[in-house]
Amino acid sequence: MILYVNGDSHSAGAEAFTFHAFANDGNKHWGKPHRHPHPENLEVCFGTQVANKLGASWINQAESGSSNQRIIRSTEIFLETSKIKDLVLLIGWSTWEREEWLYNGVYYQVTASGSDTVPDELQDKYKQWVIDTTSRVAENELHWHQTIYNFHLKLKERNVRHLFFNTYRYFAHIKQNNLSKFDWGNNYIGPYSQDLTYYYWLQNQGYKTVNPKSYHYGANAHAKWAEFLVPYLTSVS
Fold it and tell me: Who contacts 214 (Cβ-Cβ below 8 Å, separation ≥6)?
């Protein structure tokens, strides 16, 4: 079996071992593309630990700062180009407000932080986008609720086994306003529950982030999340 992992910094293991996110952060040069996860973090992240527990090989295409657009785009490219039959997808969804912008052949991941690096020509657009996106929280959530469900249906049609979970955000607006929920079968862990997101589940288990200003957990927390995921992955359809 091949385990394919995609997501944002949580799935990339950012800061799990070393206080870095990307392959070439710090003093070492790993010969990887800059936005590739830091190899020392990958060694201890939950993806590695799940694969070890399952006796599986694995591929990680998670990227710190990733939008859900990038997650779906890169996963679809992987599925189109790979010939793997015994495959399980494990995807941790990012926050709803992030976007991916294509400019001059380069993809940029933008967040509401206001600190992302974009070309000079996109600076004004980015500043206005950061202002506007704060008023579209519910709209963005509804969009991703439908988009992720459509992606789930596509994977079901192709008989691709997959397990989704939320890393930090969940479908709060839908739950709080009693809007229509989708039937995800056994393919999504607690889409409408904050307590079943990666971040809050570990917090409820007593784990602390690597420092008070970080949203990232260390290797021990990754091991606990891996332990939590295994029963779901072994029964996923």
Answer: 15
Question: DSSP for 170-225?
Answer: --HHHHHTTPPPP--TTSEE-TT-GGGSHHHHHHHTT--BSSTT---B-HHHHHHH
Residue 44, CA distances (Å) to 25, 40, 49, 225 in order: 17, 7, 7, 12
183 phi/psi in degrees, rounded to 5: -90, 105
The single residue listed with the structure tokens 């929280």 is 137
Q: Report how far apart, in Å, the C-alpha atoms of 100 and of each of 44, 71, 187, 201 are.
A: 28, 10, 25, 28
Could you read off the pLDDT of 183-209 as tens digits, one per residue?
999 999 999 999 999 999 999 999 999
Q: What is the pLDDT of residues 73-118, one digit of tens each?
A: 999 999 999 988 899 999 999 999 999 999 999 999 999 888 788 9
Residue in 216, 91, 231 with CA at minimum distance from that of residue 165: 91
Closest CA relative to residue 116, chosen from 213, 107, 23 = 107
* Residues 6+ positions from 167 with CB-CB distance below 8 Å: 7, 8, 10, 11, 92, 93, 94, 95, 197, 198, 199
Question: What is the enclosing helix (H) or strand (E) of 231?
Answer: helix 219-235
